Amino acid sequence: MRGTVLYGTRDIRFEEVPAPAVLHPTDAVIRIAAACVCGSDLWPYRGISPVGKPTPMGHEYCGVVEEVGRAVRSVKPGQFVIGSFFASDNTCPNCQAGYQTSCQHRELVGGAQAGRLRVPLADGTLVATPEMPPADLIPSLLAISDVMGTGWFAADAANVGPGKNVVVVGDGAVGLLGVLSAKQMGAGRIIAMSRHETRQKLAREFGATDIVTERGDEGIARVKELTGGVGADCVLECVGTQESMMQAIHATRPGGSVGYVGVPHGVALNGQDLFYAHVHLHGGPAPVRRYLPQLIDLVWQRKINPGKVFDLTLPLERVAEGYAAMDTRRAIKALLRPEAA
Ligand SMILES: [Zn+2]
Ligand SMILES: [Zn+2]
Predict the structure, then answer these.
(1) 101 C-alpha to ligand 2 centroid (Å)
(2) Which of 112, 126, 167, 214 has its CA 20 to 30 A from that of 84?
(3) Which ligand has an atom closest to residue 124 CA?
(4) Amino acid 120: pLDDT
(5) Rounded to the nearest 10 degrees, what angle do helices 242-250 and 216-226 cross at?
(6) Smallest-distance ligand from the CA of 95
(7) In order of start, what are the domains of the chain with their CATH numbers?
(8) From CA 74, how far away is CA 248, in angstroms rounded?
């Protein structure tokens, strides 16, 4: 089998790798229907979080179950399934509380940019669709595996609800799907912060009512202008830099909430600043598993179309082009299709 391996900075190779197998009784092996490149894959790709050794890439996936271990009960071969980037048992106290990405037995899923994938803790991790999906739904089902689930968590963590004013910091795929999530949750005004025309267009399509192109203090001032001088009720932070985090905190009204899902790189918060900001902060790796049944249903009923964030589709063997296109922001998100096998 061939799969995607990162060797070092901007050195992505599609090469022969060991075929995955059931190693534990709770494992499943799935045949990937579609995979994609994640914004977080770009951190090691750019050498900001160096890999150190050749590393199989990919953690967003959907596909058909081929084989299950003898302890697996809830999914069976032939079913179409979606999972998240952390495998979870879905039974421990943290899972029961809805924080499956903090599962006491969590395992990072890797190597999904390949033809096949081993998924640990299959019963807790994978959720099957009602039947085999039509081809046009596959991009949206794939999006649920991470970006859509993460955008949804950002909105949920920011306490988005009917009529609330929402700001979304970040116009990557997660930010754009944060807009879509806020719209689904009944938000009133949705302000997307973006400087890129194609992304602004998609943000509007997903439900943004206003676009703010300014950043930093100017961006905060612009949000205040749009929200009666107080700031937004809910702010979704979908980048993970110092600037974006400060922008999010200071664009929030006193008593409002920040949902932060951008993986922080070099973010440090000043205690006094935070103290006087008077905001709720909630975030972390999105517990996508909590939302999978609901999001699968919304896609299945064709009420949401998060697959629109994929503006580049490539055969899996051309995966390196997908990384390069996202690295230079020529593409929002690249979908990868393995050859039929
Ligand atoms: Zn991801
Ligand atoms: Zn658990």
Answers:
(1) 8
(2) 167
(3) 2
(4) 98
(5) 20
(6) 2
(7) 2-146+287-337 (3.90.180.10), 148-283 (3.40.50.720)
(8) 40
